[in-house]
Design a protein that fits this description.
The complex is a heterodimer of chains A (about 190) and B (about 675). By secondary structure, chain A is α/β, with parallel strands linked by helices. Chain A has two domains: about 130 residues, Rossmann fold (3-Layer(aba) Sandwich); about 35 residues. Chain A contains six helices and four strands. Chain A has a four-stranded parallel sheet, sandwiched between helices. In chain A, helix 3 links the parallel strand 3 and strand 4. Chain B has about 675 residues and is α/β, with parallel strands linked by helices. Among the domains of chain B are: about 140 residues, Rossmann fold (3-Layer(aba) Sandwich); about 80 residues, no CATH class; about 170 residues, FAD/NAD(P)-binding domain; about 55 residues, Alpha-Beta Plaits (2-Layer Sandwich), CATH 3.30.70. Chain B contains 16 helices and 36 strands. Chain B has a five-stranded parallel sheet with strand order 10-7-6-20-31, with helices on one face. A five-stranded parallel sheet of chain B has the order 22-29-23-24-25. Chain B has a four-stranded parallel sheet with strand order 2-1-3-4, sandwiched between helices. In chain B, a hairpin with a 4-residue loop joins strand 34 and strand 35. In chain B, helix 10 runs parallel beside helix 11. The longest helix of chain B has 21 residues. Classes of the chains: A alpha/beta (about 190), B alpha/beta (about 675).
């Protein structure tokens, strides 16, 4: 990660960051319509344009969350209206699978949302964005990059201890004197 | 200008441009701050802000930088890519760089126009710009995809719109297939008596065009036919047309109608569809006198020579129980063939024009007007047939009991502008109501009452038409009709009372009339839903076929190569239908004349890593992926691939790549937009 990507602890001024995958023909156009109609909504959404919601690879969603997104929104055409006939159905299947996966990982279900938004529904874009920002604000930051950094730190610390434990066999843990003792009691 | 050839392993040099768009963007986003921020990012060689990037000087700025700064990537942060991606790609191409080394950032429709906090809007712009800066180094020098266009055209629907488009294209030398569901072309216009505002006789204007279609060497006129299947893509549509049997051989029938005269049924007995059930016909009949093609047809449901009931495939079985006086009368021409079966035709066309028209609102859905219950309530189309000289009453406006009405009420907005039925205004009803009022007064000297909500008469000469007919003595009452019920004082003649509030005088009126005419609105064709699935078109929420853009592309659809003409796109009058049909013909002609269409090179291809698991193959809605037996790997047919990316997302080994939307490109966008921005 570049220096700018180094996670900082979420401050009191934390605002949710939501990554959105919008399909070109319906949802992206609807978002444009919301723009043309000057429908003001929350500024927390960052849109990635794809040709079809069927292009949304579950890896994208997981990657977004891992890189610091607090939630992900997928937008596609209404069932039966996909510009490519069936892509949105494939997206729906992947979404349902992903929901279970994320639940197993302990990530709240409200952090992944799938919406069918047609090209004429600028109003819906505004409503969905505002709703989602409100919901995620209440949930708080997901903070996966911070968690990863924390785990990395703990692993480093643990690695040091293991190394120290081995050294203790030869001459003692550097932090706790020369007597060998189990790590648990040393850190009790 | 010699194109710049990038040196091998040349480092990525990005030119970043943020547009003020006047104050549209600069009013909310601090464009200078964004440009400054982007200049600090890796690979950025140039970072500028400018007032109007899409203008000539704006584009020249990019071109100059490409030359002088050896740029090999360009990012423009401005309006929506749906608006100007093409503009900038062309500008870059003119500057010597591959047009696909470009990424556009939407900071107007998705940012400046929808947010209220400058700080947030600016940070968002920075994040989105960074996403593009991280994405664009992965872009590849793609070539635009060229698809050849077959010169033949299919026009679905033979009303005035389809007819006009067909003639325009056929006159230009193109081969046109005009497919019409009914046994004759003419559509709804053939049923009208006179048309507003000129009060031209509809058939007088229409039949020369119909005749021209019938005799045109470049038009294959297939009536009583339906499109069964559409495959393929723009430039290369494979269409299957089903020609239904009329039991008359079109090529041999001369339209003399001797068969009709000779039919064993001496009197017409069956409800005539063209006259909306107000008249009668025989089992063998000519749909209407000016039908094109001028060929009779036999109704197998009532003709004595057929058994009742259909075979499973829809065909009818000959019972041979009739004397077949029609065959006798036809004589040497031998045009009657009871054994005729449906014909399946397969054609290849490059472009398609949809001109399938509309249906009128079914007035039974507003039961308080009594349509279908009280015999003296009619809809406007039925009145057109009654006052038409070639209609069931030969132009006499009479009630079902034969009496001439002395008082007629015309109820506007039946089914339209109503939350309970259809919300839209059907555009033509006020005008045709005024027209009918004028014609009714002319035919019968009756007193006519028009009940309207608003008088909507847009269009050239329409206001003048309104003024002219309004001065002829008709009553114009501003108020919705609440109820139509039998006159309690008159139980014998079927007189009705129309109850409405006159909102201009604040009085409730109860007017006894002899005839009520319901000005029914226009609705999407009942088969619009199944048609659009066949052709892969979008519909608006109301059911009209969806145009690509209401202002900039009103006759195009989201499916390349398919165009719209007439009421199938939305209610409109005849002048607008004809104009739109001409526009659709021009669009089709433009594609055909160019000979090819350029498509976004966003197709997918399969890498050698493919393990042959076949997961992707059933997913493609265009059957573009097949399994190559020799290599035991999947392979994508580039011509069929439409670039949806569904297969890409499904590949378990990541062996499918979509041009313009590669995994690496998306991952870098995600990474870029989640970086911490200054001030966060």
């Amino acid at each position: 990660m570049t220096p700018e990507n180094q996670p900082s602890l979420p401050s009191a001024a934390w605002k949710p960051r939501i990554v959105a995958f919008f399909c070109n023909w319906c949802t992206y156009t609807a978002a444009d319509l919301a723009g043309v109609s000057r429908m003001k909504h929350a500024a927390n959404l960052r849109v990635i344009r794809l040709m079809c919601s069927g292009r949304v690879d579950p890896q994208f969603i997981v990657d977004a969350l891992a890189k610091g997104a607090d939630a992900v929104l997928i937008g596609g055409c209404h069932p039966n209206d996909c510009h490519y006939a069936e892509g949105n159905y494939k997206c729906l299947r992947r979404y349902q699978m992903l929901q279970r996966l994320l639940a197993d990982m302990g990530i709240e279900p409200e952090r992944l949302r799938l919406e069918w938004i047609s090209a004429a529904e600028g109003e819906k874009v505004k409503r969905v964005v505002n709703e989602m920002v409100e919901t995620v604000t209440k949930l708080g930051p997901l903070g996966l990059p911070q968690k990863f950094a924390q785990w990395d730190e703990e692993m480093e610390h643990f690695a040091e201890h293991v190394a120290a434990g081995e050294a203790a066999a030869d001459g003692g843990c550097t932090e706790h004197g020369t007597k060998t003792q189990p790590l648990e009691t040393a850190h009790a | 200008m010699k194109p710049i050839v990038p040196r091998k392993y040349e480092p990525v040099r990005i030119g970043f441009y943020i547009c003020h768009c006047g104050t549209n963007i600069a009013g909310m986003v601090d464009v200078e701050a964004v440009a400054k921020y982007v200049a600090t990012l890796p690979n950025v060689a140039v970072s500028r802000n400018y007032k109007y990037m899409c203008s000539d000087p704006g584009q020249e700025l990019i071109q100059q930088d490409i030359r002088e700064n050896r740029l090999n990537r360009v990012v423009v942060a401005a309006c929506s890519p749906l608006l100007h991606e093409r503009t900038f790609r062309k500008a870059i191409e003119a500057g010597g760089l591959n047009p696909y080394y470009f990424q556009m950032v939407n900071i107007r429709e998705h940012d400046a126009w929808v947010h209220t906090d400058r700080g947030e809007a600016t940070r968002k712009a920075m994040a989105l710009a960074r996403a593009a800066i991280q994405r664009v180094p992965h872009h590849k020098p793609l070539e635009v995809k060229k698809v050849a266009i077959h010169p033949n055209v299919l026009i679905v629907g033979g009303g005035i719109g389809g007819i006009h488009a067909a003639l325009t294209l056929a006159n230009a030398g193109k081969m046109v297939y005009l497919v019409e569901k009914e046994p004759t072309i003419g559509g709804h216009m053939a049923k009208f008596d006179k048309t507003f505002p000129t009060l031209d006789c509809a058939m007088c204007v229409l039949s020369p065009k119909m005749a021209a279609v019938g005799s045109h060497p470049n038009i294959h006129l297939w009536t009583y036919s339906e499109v069964a299947k559409v495959d393929g893509y723009v430039g290369n549509f494979k269409v299957t047309v089903r020609r239904k049997p009329r039991y008359i051989l079109e090529d041999l029938c001369t339209g003399c109608q001797e068969c009709v005269n000779a039919c064993v049924y001496k009197e017409p007995k069956f409800l005539d569809e063209f006259n909306l059930g107000l008249g009668k016909r025989k089992p063998v009949f000519l749909p209407f006198p000016q039908a094109v093609p001028p060929v009779t047809m036999i109704d197998p449901e009532v003709c004595l020579n057929f058994k009742r009931g259909k075979n499973p495939d829809g065909s009818h079985v000959v019972s041979d129980k009739c004397k077949k006086t029609c065959v006798e009368a036809c004589g040497d021409r031998k045009a009657i063939d009871f054994k005729q079966t449906q014909e399946i035709k397969e054609i290849t066309v490059g472009t398609i024009i949809m001109a399938t028209g509309f249906q009128i609102f079914d007035a039974k859905r507003v039961p308080y007007y009594g349509y279908g219950v009280y015999p003296n309530v009619y809809n406007a189309l039925e009145i057109e047939r009654l006052i038409n000289a070639s209609g069931p009453t030969e132009g006499e406006l009479v009630l079902r009991n034969g009496q001439v009405p002395k008082k007629v009420a015309i109820v506007h907005c039946v089914g339209s502008r109503d939350e309970n039925t259809n919300r839209w205004c059907s555009r033509v009803c006020c005008l045709y109501s005024l027209k009918l009022a004028h014609l009714i007064q002319e035919h019968t000297d009756a007193e006519v009452y028009n009940f309207y909500i608003d008088m909507r008469t847009p269009g050239k000469s329409m206001e003048e038409f309104y003024n002219r007919v309004a001065e002829e003595g008709m009553h114009l009452i501003r108020g919705r009709v609440a109820d139509v019920y039998p006159d309690p004082n008159d139980g014998t003649t079927g007189r009705l009372v129309v109850q409405a509030e006159d909102t201009l005088t604040n009085k409730i009126l109860k007017i006894p009339v002899d005839m009520v005419v319901l000005s029914v609105g226009l609705e999407p064709h009942p088969e619009a839903e199944s048609l659009r699935r066949m052709f892969n078109l979008s519909c608006s929420s109301e059911g009209w076929f969806l145009e690509r853009h209401p202002k900039l592309a009103p006759v195009n659809t989201f499916t390349d190569g398919i165009f719209l003409a007439g009421c199938c796109q939305g209610p409109k009058d005849i002048p607008d239908t004809v104009a739109q049909a001409g526009a659709a013909a021009a669009e089709a002609f433009s594609l055909i004349d160019k000979g090819h269409i350029e498509q976004e090179p966003n197709t997918a291809y399969i890498l050698d890593d493919c393990s042959g698991c076949k997961s992707c193959i059933p997913l493609c809605p265009y059957t573009a992926i097949s399994f190559a037996e020799d290599t035991k790997k999947a392979i994508i047919n580039e011509a069929l691939c439409k670039g949806c990316g569904t297969c890409v997302a499904s590949c378990p080994s990541g062996s499918i790549v979509q041009n313009l939307f590669e995994d690496e490109e998306i991952f870098s966008e995600i990474d870029g937009m989640l970086a911490t921005m200054p001030g966060e």
